[in-house]
């Protein structure tokens, strides 16, 4: 395995992008990047191409003189302007490599700003800030850091409530909607942070939504300290997460599961919900599970022994590897641009009772590494975001698009990955992709499968 | 409309009417205004990216390289090294101890792997701060590998996109003049500022070939290092997208005495005039005759077809927001050819002269805007009851969310919009969005229908 100095076709994004998406999932929030104008614009463009939705990310738009004398004045001016025109309830400020390197003390600037502009004002937005230097970690560390910052900075007292906190991580808008439904099905009152199911997948409107409707209500976030429990998805999380903070400081019981992708991971998650609600699995999910298994029987022959390459964010890859092993596909390469150090063990844990040997796992990977690793693995299918299209095209094998970003298809935000319902959709897509490939490659052109 | 405009930005917005024309521009973007602009790095990357046989290495953290990976539709007829994303992916350790060693290793590794004809190394914000001597590393690797290795001083915070254009032109200037120019025709040109989106430069070149004009170098659409190295052998520089490459043209005029003319390949009028301008410059009767023939042949096919679209689109209202103002001129004329009214026009990086010209070619009531943002743009779309908005990826969701038709005229587009055939494509694009039945169902129209 080579260890290159250069990165070729990256399989990760930078920290402030993850933070921007997380902030977009809070009610009334505007994400704000403290750095040069390009960061905000590039990330907007990247996010827009996936969601096909507006996302206004403000910037302190630093220039050369600010890089020398500090970005404080522009940060304050930017906050003032955003407040005047967007009237946000919250501004989520993430730093960039520029402002981290010049050593801007954002905490101090914000204290000054509050003293100078917000004293006595009841319309001033809440300011949340997070340190997201792009040179350490990926967009996932940025996402989790922003969620942790929201908890740390908003959760200051502890009312008690019957609510359950959910920290799903970076999932699709459809996934968040599923999560809401499943909580309702169990009769659980829930707070999901972040919740961009509406803010990044909204309705057609007649007014431009400067601050779109939806998002986790700030009042609900403040009450997360008193919830009955928190449920956090992911096996490859950083040490500091929303769930961990609530557990350590406020004593909120923390349940961790993987992303509920496939049967066993969903079973585990619904077990947790059963425990928290004291209710049996709702009929809707019993039915969905049964149909999924029925479908898996119908399609098992097409998939058995097929070989897949899976890549994306670490926790998504773990979930997919678990699911693929359940449906008879061998994930021959599991890769991620992330490098939490937990990927290999997590994949081993979720596949060990089905797969005879652990898949080849590569963290800190780019698409060049993956192309090298694939040689000799003879995969039948690639499963991941649309950045693997070049690779799939070169190999002449199909790409099933999941995760983020989906830049070459519509509706990336509506891909459902979670639950039996998500597994059903993934299953149908994967099996039909394999069948379609077989049909197209066949000289006969069978019209029954 | 006033509610949408920040006080500091009022000087950058003008509604053509009775008040005398005055327009501020070329300012730093206002903090918190959510500018549609990117940064210096973006400007450099846009200009150099289409050079297909060069290595483009981004020296910085991963984001800058990730967000510019294959995002543009600049096609190549041969190598496509430009479509890959290369980065030094600087880590905390590099930021503290310096990234020169990593840059050296990455460059060496990639040049050995891909054997490019040249390498461009882009600096990013952080490189400007940690003080890596990129030029020294580039010189060293260039000497070792025997290819030009050119630093592009594109630290994002150094200004706006225009600064990036200049940094790119500085890098290109080091390539020009290093190739053999024997055998170049006395009737020869370089094409500057066309990026071969959707294959446009191939179409433009075909016109010049029919006219008997040799194209020496494409700068930079479907560009090749060797062609650019002998670009100083051409007799005339044609400069489209003048914001991005006029600086290089001026340098080449100073260095090699090559004159330049500004052209545009968008719209019938500007396309034809561009060809005629070249023919006039060379002053050869046969060339002029052939040019007339080219234009005649193209128009004979095009105009009857356009008529159909014109009938459907006449009287519809258009808004334009693009990167460079020069493209906006052509779009205003193109809409006028379709019988449509331009009610708003703006650009990210226009100059005072650009806005003077826009003011001259637009109708009373038209809004002219510099360095705008979603809040302003959406309020203009509503206020002017726009039927179609022309812009790029970042403008698209503004239009679509409000239920307004949209035409992508940015670098990401996949439809050829330049040349005579491009005008027809443009009309089709506009038509296929404006006439879609989908608008019947959007809230904006539903409410009006009630």
What does this structure look like?
The complex is a heterodimer of chains A (449) and B (450). Chain A is an alpha/beta fold. Chain A has three domains: 15-154, Nitrogenase molybdenum iron protein domain (Rossmann fold, 3-Layer(aba) Sandwich); 164-259, Nitrogenase molybdenum iron protein domain (Rossmann fold, 3-Layer(aba) Sandwich), CATH 3.40.50.1980; 283-441, Nitrogenase molybdenum iron protein domain (Rossmann fold, 3-Layer(aba) Sandwich). Helix content of chain A is 45%, strand content 13%. Chain A has 17 helices and 14 strands. In chain A, the strands form three sheets. Chain A has a five-stranded parallel β-sheet, sandwiched between helices. Chain A is globular and about 75 Å long. Helix content of chain B is 46%, strand content 15%. Chain B folds into three domains: 2-23 and 314-413, Rossmann fold (3-Layer(aba) Sandwich); 40-175, Rossmann fold; 188-293, Rossmann fold. Chain B has a six-stranded mixed β-sheet. In chain B, strands 3-2-4-5 form a four-stranded parallel β-sheet, sandwiched between helices. A four-stranded parallel β-sheet of chain B has the order 7-6-8-9, with helices on both faces. Chain B is an alpha/beta fold. In chain B, helix 16 links the parallel strand 13 and strand 14. The longest helix of chain B is centred in the middle third of the chain and has 29 residues, at 285-313. The two termini of chain B are 25 Å apart. In chain B, helix 13 (325-337) packs parallel to helix 14 (352-361). At the A-B interface, strand 1, helix 2, strand 3, helix 3 and helix 4 of A face helix 1, helix 2, strand 3, helix 3 and helix 4 of B.
